[in-house]
Design a protein that fits this description.
Blueprint lengths: L1 H35 L2 H7 L1 E4 L1 E3 L2 E3 L2 H8 L5 E3 L4 H14 L7 E4 L12 H5 L4 H17 L4 E2 L23 H16 L12 E5 L18 H8 L1 H8 L4 E4 L3 E2 L2 E2 L4 H11 L5 E3 L8 H4 L5 H11 L4 E2 L3 H11 L5 H17 L12 H7 L3 H14 L1 E5 L12 E5 L25 H8 L4 E5 L15 H9 L3 E7 L20 H9 L5 E6 L7 H6 L2 E4 L7 H9 L63 E8 L3 E2 L4 E10 L5 E11 L10 E10 L4 E9 L5 E2 L5 E2 L3 E8 L6 E7 L2
Parallel strand pairs: 1-4, 1-12, 4-5, 5-6, 7-8, 8-11, 14-15, 14-16, 16-17, 17-18, 20-28
Antiparallel strand pairs: 2-3, 9-10, 13-18, 19-21, 21-24, 22-23, 22-27, 25-26, 27-28
Helix pairs in contact: 1-14, 2-13, 2-14, 6-7, 6-15, 6-16, 7-9, 10-12, 12-13, 16-21, 17-21
The structure holds 1-deoxynojirimycin.
Length: 740
């Protein structure tokens, strides 16, 4: 034992010494290189341009080509495939004066060519190992395609389903979102950035991009510093603590200053408070956009503001290239500021192994071997199944029998490929997608399956009712009806906010018509946001929220429908009853007039209950779980103490199944008001039918810290309530206190 311990310490020390030696070498190399660089070349390193893509493949605009040769481009994005990136890298290495290699970035958001579930879906697995594995495999496939930098993870907390980009994040909760942020950074970057199967991650969008007013993309963000620090910043911080190499600015303003020009965010918080030492890249033309924001009069002033804020790389705006030298001449910026930014970028290039071998990521054999490999396909299926959330299952309609005689599959997602890839699927290969129709056919080969699209998504006028009759007829002739409805991939994601979150187009009418037939019906809802499912909940006996699951969508869904996989996903975002309840989230405040059905003058609506349709943490299984025996190891804690909270969970049904055991805490009285509940722990467990297990959580008073009245981050003495169960409405309750 002692020997093993000593060996571990020795190994750790050797690694530290090695890392120090590497850093010394790196610093010397970069110092020497920077000594040879002209100011223009330095500014070039701060410049990131996009490559294009047309029918013949990737292209680079002539101006950028010339700038690249002149050493005025440090990185490119949207360029991939080994062959193409090799050409570009050769230009950088062989045709520029100093031969500094390029970094190749790309939006690898939920897979590169093989697509995994959209991030919101994956978060519903509450499975951190699986999420980390998705990131590792995405990195592997992307790196094999000549990329070494992904613009992910997006960790913006979001509580407004009108906002289209809710699909790209991990939902509404800060605690869970922070753990997922860490898992993704570790997954993308691995232990060694210079391993050609990993990529540098870029956490985004700093800061609070997920809270735009009215849910409209790019809109104003305005919140107290307390809410910003307590709810929105922790996932970015978790990514920084996990060693994320880069961070992206957000488009929005924070407290009146566009993030891209905020020294407070990028220097005071990010660098000074958090000790981040990678580089900062802007979002797409975010420096230029500070002009319409009205914080500067022109792009030159915008460049000055951004560099002064501590923003290192200009994505696509071209303003650093155009104005920084001039601003230095005028004494508005210093060459030292440029040096600092260049140094950070060159350090990342070193960390990626590009100075040792600029062609490290450019191996055609490796590309062929890795793209769409079995390992990726298997993971697409596994992550797909784990992301599905069963919302309703009246009279155990599901799982279906494989002996079912006839099925009517109705709806625009039924025999569809591209939309199942979801938003931001970038280079995801549509032709590889297993459709729902195909998935059903594989599972129930003897069933007669009739597919009728019924209608479109109401996108670009695609809302004809011509096929309604055929859909009704198919339903009449089937034993079971499966409705494959939802959004297409362009109805959520960037620049895809919606003011109405019901099924788009005339799909709702289609569902209502088909329901009149009266057959056992399952609604498969495939969307990138929580939809208003109130009517469906009241009228359709089984509802499966599938989200958009990527390449293996159809197979994952079929596994769940026929019971080869027992669904275990839990919502990471509250589903409202209608859009008027938005923003609605589980850890709201109590108010001075909490809901009371018998008192008109309490906080409520006249036309809809306060409660959501489905709460955060909710999701059904084909089995049932019973919670009992909540035990709290101490009734009174001193500051700094730990307490163990345990509960007994029993699989009380007849199938094996997984359950996400959730721990919520309420701090009853604070120097500022506290949420009615906060998630403080969870564990996903597998229980065989009839099996029981005790699940333990240990939390310390540090886990109860918050920004107090004086903005100190600490716990306060007082009474706490504990809730344990399978969703945020958990009713098993206990108490403890922190002594004065
Ligand atoms: C704009 C998006 O906001 C950002 O998330 C993305 O990484 C960049 N465009 C680059 O495509």
């Amino acid at each position: 034992m002692k020997k093993i311990f000593a060996a571990t310490i020795l190994a750790a020390l050797t690694l530290t010494v090695q890392a120090q030696e590497d850093n010394t070498k790196r610093d010397a190399f970069i110092k020497d290189l920077m000594g040879k660089m002209t100011l223009e070349e330095k500014i070039g390193q701060l410049t990131l341009y996009t490559s294009g893509w047309d029918v013949t493949g990737p292209t680079l605009n002539e101006n950028y080509k010339n700038e690249l040769k002149a050493g005025k481009v440090g990185a490119l994005f949207n360029a991939h495939t080994v062959k193409y990136n090799r050409d570009l890298q050769e230009t950088a290495v062989k045709k520029t004066r100093l031969g500094i290699p390029l970094i190749f970035g790309y939006d690898v958001i939920h897979g590169h060519r093989t697509i995994f579930p959209i991030p919101l879906a994956e978060s519903c697995s509450w499975d951190l190992d699986m999420i980390r594995e998705s990131a590792r495999l995405s990195a592997k496939e992307a790196a094999a395609s000549g990329l070494n930098w992904t613009f992910n993870p997006m960790v913006d907390i979001a509580r407004d389903p009108r906002w289209g980009r809710i699909s790209e994040g991990s939902g509404e909760d800060t605690y869970l979102g922070s753990l997922i942020a860490k898992a993704k950074v570790k997954g993308y970057q691995g232990d060694d950035l210079s391993d050609p199967l990993t990529v540098a991650a870029c956490v985004k969008h700093f800061a609070a991009y997920g809270a735009p007013q009215a849910g409209r993309d790019y809109s104003t963000v305005d919140m107290s510093e307390r809410v910003l620090r307590e709810t929105y910043l922790p996932p970015y911080k978790a990514a920084v603590d996990a060693g994320v190499e880069t961070i992206m600015t957000s488009f929005n303003e924070v407290d009146g200053v566009p993030a891209t020009g905020s020294k407070w965010l990028f220097t005071d918080i990010l660098r000074k408070e958090w000790g981040f030492n990678g580089f900062v890249v802007t979002d797409y033309t975010a420096i230029n956009e500070m002009v319409p924001h009205g914080i500067v009069a022109n792009e030159k002033e915008a460049a000055e503001l951004a560099l002064n804020a501590g923003v290192d790389m200009d994505m696509q705006g071209g303003v650093y290239n155009q104005y920084v030298a001039e601003l230095i001449k005028e004494g508005k910026l210093t060459e030292e500021q440029v040096n600092t930014a260049v140094r950070r970028i060159l350090e990342s290039k070193w960390n990626l192994g590009l100075f040792k071998d600029p062609y490290l990521y450019l191996d055609e054999k490796r590309e062929k071997k890795i793209l769409y490999s079995q390992e990726l396909m298997d993971h697409a299926l596994e992550s797909g199944k784990r992301s599905i959330v069963l919302l309703k299952n009246e009279n155990n309609l599901l799982p279906l029998s494989k002996e079912v005689k006839s099925i009517a599959l109705i709806g625009p997602l039924g025999d569809n490929q591209i939309d199942l890839l979801g938003s931001w699927h970038a280079s995801g290969n549509e032709s590889k997608v297993v459709t729902i129709l195909q998935g059903l056919k594989e599972k129930a080969p003897n069933a007669k399956i009739t597919y009728v699209k019924g209608t479109g998504f109401g996108f670009d006028g695609d809302d004809s009712k011509d096929e309604f009759e055929a859909a009704i007829e198919a339903a009449r002739n089937a034993d079971v009806v499966i409705l494959a409805v939802g959004e297409n991939y362009r109805q959520n994601g960037e620049a895809a906010s919606r003011s109405d979150i019901t099924l788009p187009g005339v799909q709702q009418e289609l569902v209502e018509e088909v329901m009149k037939v009266g057959k056992p019906t399952v609604a498969l809802v495939g969307a990138g946001r929580p939809l208003d499912l109130s009517w469906i909940d009241a009228n359709v006996p089984a509802i499966v929220n599938t989200w958009h699951l990527g390449t293996m969508h159809g197979r994952a869904v079929a596994d769940v429908l026929f019971g080869d996989y027992n669904p275990a996903g839990k919502l990471t975002i509250t589903f409202p009853r209608n859009v008027g309840q938005v923003p609605i989230y589980y850890n709201m405040k109590n108010t001075g007039r909490p809901f009371d059905a018998n008192n008109k003058y309490t906080s409520k609506y006249l036309d809809v209950p306060n409660t959501p349709l489905y709460p955060f943490g909710y999701g059904l299984s084909y089995t049932t779980f019973e919670y009992s025996g909540l035990n709290i190891s101490k009734s009174s804690l001193n500051m700094g103490d730990e307490v163990t909270i345990s509960v007994n969970v029993k699989n009380s049904g007849s199938r094996d199944g997984e359950e996400v055991v959730q721990l919520y805490i309420r701090d009853l009285v604070g120097s500022v008001t506290r949420p009615v509940r906060e998630l403080k722990g969870f564990e996903k467990i597998l229980l065989k039918a009839g099996e029981s297990r005790t699940v333990n959580f240990t939390i310390s008073t540090d886990d109860l810290a918050f920004y107090t009245r004086n903005m100190d981050f600490k716990a306060e003495p007082g009474d706490f309530e504990v809730y344990m169960g399978g969703d945020s409405n958990a009713s098993l309750k206990g108490t403890f206190k922190i002594a004065e």
